[in-house]
């Protein structure tokens, strides 16, 4: 599984990144987690509201930090 | 009818203006601590505590409601809606969506690039970027709480008009030329990744709204305390004659001065409201006060620096000038017709 956190470095983006890393560890799944900060690269995905969460090439969350439970469910749905 | 009016004014006084809170604060400092009414200390202290508590209560409730509504309007959705309109309609819808789309100045660059990439005219993006910090649900209700509904309503209309005209002028003068090259060259119009329709549950929306309240209060509480502090000083300590001389209606430069003072300042509208309140109580014209508030919220050094990253100097200068001139004109008009509002 490929997970990307998209965000230019705002506090919320870092918070989401940390949550994703924690969740991946907790679920014990094989996943590569990337943090994309390049503004043009983010814009070219079509995402505007940051932070965004991309799993296997699809944006599943945009413009908000979800609760831990919601994040877990969204990741589990993609396994 | 009479009953409805009484009922509405009761709600207005107790919930919006929180007269009960004012009474408690006055009782606390007057009767319990024995401060003498009318002294500098009494006036400053009661103003400070009444305003701090009132603003924090209203702010929390309003941010919650506003965020709940906003959870239905993501910037991606805004972009989609906007691309359906043309000409001045696009500017109008852009300005309107600016009032409900979640926004903080840190996201102005992603929004700018994203809108440009979607093929939206630069003028429409600016209509959105001008109205977004200027007008939102929470600030309108706070304005109604501190002043009255007429002023709150007029503020919304003026804010929208400045956003629409500003954006339209930028389109009219074909300012796309002055967008930084990397924005135009770097975009790949067909590279959009599929965004799964966000199915937010009611619980997720409530959760999002609570998080927003926490985040915004954590960000703005300092500005509110500073704002109320300055307001309390103006209210209790600074002599009326001095304020009237500098910012009063007799000084023809009052609006100009208030605007120029406000432009570089960075503060939330919630921090500027108590200052505005104190100034109005000291006899400063409503137009002068609104000009100051708008200048502080619409433009600030940090936001200008951010926008500078994506546009060239000419467009930046035009953007700042249009908004500043719009605010000044609005200020003088409000002062001329203030009998309609007070």
Structure notes:
The complex is a heterodimer of chains A (79) and B (342). By secondary structure, chain A is an alpha+beta fold. Chain A has a single domain, classed as Glutaredoxin, CATH 3.40.30. Chain A has 3 helices and 4 strands; from the N terminus they run E-H-E-H-E-E-H. In chain A, strands 2-1-3-4 form a 4-stranded mixed β-sheet. The termini of chain A are close together. The mean pLDDT of chain A is 88. Chain B has one domain (39-185, 199-340). Chain B is 75% helix and 0% strand. In chain B, helix 5 (87-100) packs parallel to helix 7 (122-134) and helix 9 (149-172) runs antiparallel to helix 17. The radius of gyration of chain B is 21 Å and the shape is globular. The mean pLDDT of chain B is 86. The longest helix of chain B is centred in the middle third of the chain and has 35 residues, at 202-236. Chain B has 342 residues and is an all-alpha fold. Chain A binds chain B through residues 8, 10, 12, 39-40, 42-50, 54, 57-67, 70, and chain B through 71, 74-76, 78-79, 102, 106-107, 109-111, 113-115, 117, 182, 186-188, 191-196, 198, 204, 207-208, 211, 215.
How would you sum up this structure in a few lines?
The complex is a heterodimer of chains A (79) and B (342). With 79 residues, chain A is α+β, with helices and mostly antiparallel strands.
Largest sheet of chain A: 4 strands, mixed
Give the class of chain A from helix and strand content and strand pairing: alpha+beta
- Overall tally of structural domains of chain B: 1
Net shape of chain B: globular
List low-confidence stretches of chain B: none
Calculate the mean pLDDT score of chain B and round it: 86
Give the beta-strand count of chain A.
4
Task: Tell me the CATH topology of chain A.
Answer: Glutaredoxin
Q: Number of DSSP strands of chain B? A: 0
Count of helical regions of chain A = 3
Helix content of chain B: over 70%
Poorly predicted parts of chain A: none
Number of domains of chain A: 1
Q: Calculate the terminal CA-CA distance of chain A, rounded to whole Å.
A: 7 Å
SS strand fraction of chain B:
under 5%
Task: Determine the number of helices of chain B (DSSP H or I, runs of at least 4 residues).
Answer: 17
What is the subunit arrangement here? heterodimer
């Amino acid at each position: 599984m490929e997970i990307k956190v998209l965000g230019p470095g705002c506090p919320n983006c870092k918070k989401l990144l940390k949550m994703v890393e924690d969740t991946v560890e907790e679920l014990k799944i094989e996943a590569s987690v990337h943090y994309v900060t390049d503004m043009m690269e983010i814009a070219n995905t079509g995402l505007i509201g940051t932070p965004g969460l991309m799993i296997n090439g699809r944006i599943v969350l945009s413009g908000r930090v979800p609760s831990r439970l919601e994040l877990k469910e969204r990741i589990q749905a993609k396994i | 009818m009479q009953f409805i009016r009484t009922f509405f004014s009761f709600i207005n006084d107790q919930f919006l203006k929180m007269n009960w809170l004012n009474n408690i604060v006055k009782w606390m400092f007057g009767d319990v601590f024995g401060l003498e009414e009318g002294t500098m200390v009494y006036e400053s202290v009661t103003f400070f505590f009444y305003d701090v508590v009132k603003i924090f209560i209203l702010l929390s409730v309003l941010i919650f409601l506003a965020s709940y509504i906003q959870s239905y309007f993501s910037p991606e959705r805004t972009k989609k809606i906007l691309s359906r309109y043309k000409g001045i309609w696009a500017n109008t819808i852009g300005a309107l969506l600016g009032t409900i789309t979640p926004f903080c100045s840190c996201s102005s660059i992603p929004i700018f690039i994203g809108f440009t990439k979607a093929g939206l005219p630069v003028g429409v993006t600016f209509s959105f970027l001008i109205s977004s910090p200027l007008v939102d649900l929470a600030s309108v209700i706070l304005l109604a709480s501190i002043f009255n509904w007429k002023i709150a309503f007029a503020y919304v209309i003026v804010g929208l008009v400045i956003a629409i005209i500003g954006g339209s002028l930028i389109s009219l003068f074909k300012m796309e030329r002055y967008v930084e090259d990397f924005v135009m060259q770097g975009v790949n119009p067909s590279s959009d990744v599929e965004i799964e329709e966000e199915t937010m549950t009611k619980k997720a929306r409530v959760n999002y709204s609570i998080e927003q309240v926490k985040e915004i209060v954590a960000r703005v509480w300092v500005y509110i305390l500073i704002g109320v502090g300055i307001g309390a000083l103006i209210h209790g300590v600074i002599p009326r004659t001095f304020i009237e001389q500098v910012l009063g209606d007799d000084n023809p430069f009052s609006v100009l001065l208030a605007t120029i003072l406000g432009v570089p300042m960075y503060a939330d509208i919630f921090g500027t409201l108590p200052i505005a309140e104190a100034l109005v109580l000291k006899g400063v014209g409503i137009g002068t006060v609104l000009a100051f508030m708008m200048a502080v919220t619409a433009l600030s050094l940090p936001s200008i620096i951010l926008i500078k990253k994506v546009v060239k100097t000419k467009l930046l200068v035009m953007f700042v000038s249009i908004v500043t001139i719009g605010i000044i004109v609005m200020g003088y008009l409000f002062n001329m017709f203030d009998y309609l509002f007070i």
